[in-house]
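Possible regression after last week's pipeline update?

I re-ran a chain I had predicted before the update to compare outputs. Posting the input and the new output here so someone can diff against the archived version. Not blocking, just want to make sure nothing changed silently.
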Amino acid sequence: MKPENLSLKNSDSKNHSDMKYPDRKTSRLEEIDFYLVTDSGLSRKGTLSDVKEAVEAGCKIVQYREKNRSTREMISEAAEIKRICIDKAIFLVNDRIDVALAVDADGVHIGQDDMPIETARRLLGKDKIIGLTVHNADEAIEAEKKEADYVGLSPIFDTVTKNDAGDGIGPEKIPEIKNAISIPVVAIGGINKENCESVIRNGADSLVAISAVICSDNVKSEIESFIDIINRIKCRD
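New output (post-update):
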């Protein structure tokens, strides 16, 4: 079942989004389902292996999140990730606008305490994708006003992946965000195969499951399972 008024909102939102955002960005973001965020500290096989398996599984968006490497190392690894993703998946860099610029990534994902989105947009240009982490409807509305291309709603459930994420808001909050904005909503935080159905049923356009995937021995198979679940629910609704 769709959240109340969600179909009408999405119909109006799509028209608004198509007018406000370049067609290529809009169309690419409309295609996403499972969203991979890398984490070298949790990965069993390494970041490049995780990205390769994700793309092979059909993942259409990859965020390179790395907190333990030098800038030089990040640029080298980001360049290789871009090569893997090219023509197959959107490639974003977490936080580091300098690294994104160095490798000509498709865009960045930033948080509330990172570089202001207006500055990031000025540096990256209008054709790049910028995602912004939000925690409530007010932040989501502000993100859209400042021309974010999508929001990452966090945390849906309690998570150990990000220590400062706060308490989970619950999937029941997703319709409130969807009804407040017209850009895509990506759900993140404590999501796994046991609870992901409630996330999609409540209207999330895409979801992130970090530890549930990259702590696995078979990243490709895990992502394929998530994509199957997401698409099955979307088709049913």
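Follow-up from reviewer: compared with the archived run. Residues 219-236 form the longest helix (18 residues). Marking as no regression found.
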